[in-house]
Structures are given as C-alpha cells and as structure tokens.
Amino acid sequence: THPLVLPPRALLSPDEQAVLTLAERHGKLTAKLVMTTQHVSKATATRRLAALTAVGLLLQRGKGRGTCYVPVTRFTEQRSQQPSPGVQEEASHRQPASMMAQALIATLQEQLQ
Questions:
Q1: Is the pLDDT of residue 67 over 80?
Q2: pTM for the whole thing?
Q3: Rounded-to-integer distance, Cα 52 and Cα 66, Å
Q4: Are 58 and 70 in contact (CB under 8 A)?
C-alpha cells in the first residue's frame, strides 16, 4: 500500500484495534500503558505500537524512555487548527480534518489505480 493511504480499521487485528482505540481515547500512549491495559509484555506492547506506527495510524514522539505515540487523527486535527502564517480564515470555512483526510485518501486511491 501507499504510505499515505491508511488501512481500514477492519484490516487490523483485534489487539491492534484495541491499541488504536486506547490511543484515540487517551490522546497519547506509552508502551507501559499498553502493557497494563492489555496485560502483555513490554516486547508485545512495543511490537503493537510499532506495527500501528509502520502503517501510519500512530506517530512516534521521542526516543527511549520518553517515547509516546499519538493517533494520526489527533495530530491532523491539531495541525488543522493552527492557522497558516499571514492567512486569516473564519472557522466556519475550515473543513474538519477527517473530511480532508478522506478526500486525500480518495484522491490517492484513484491515482494508484
């Protein structure tokens, strides 16, 4: 798959879906949080986080002990709320991040066919 085309949630394993849901609820995740909520080893928690990062559903922040993961949806929502320098636009003219992401995905899928 193209790196900018996110896989549908249905293609994820139930464990990966649970981690992604946890990330969306908490806003950010650590391996320790995944370990305690899913009752898995550190290696398994890290592997699940790495898999979701590899397909573009989570973004890794930091390295080593300070590593955390944020869902891409939260990242794009934060970015869309920051106005571009020198550009003033009313909030009513902005598209929600999810609509922009869906439009981008549709465009990329058309180009890949």
A1: yes
A2: 0.60
A3: 18
A4: yes
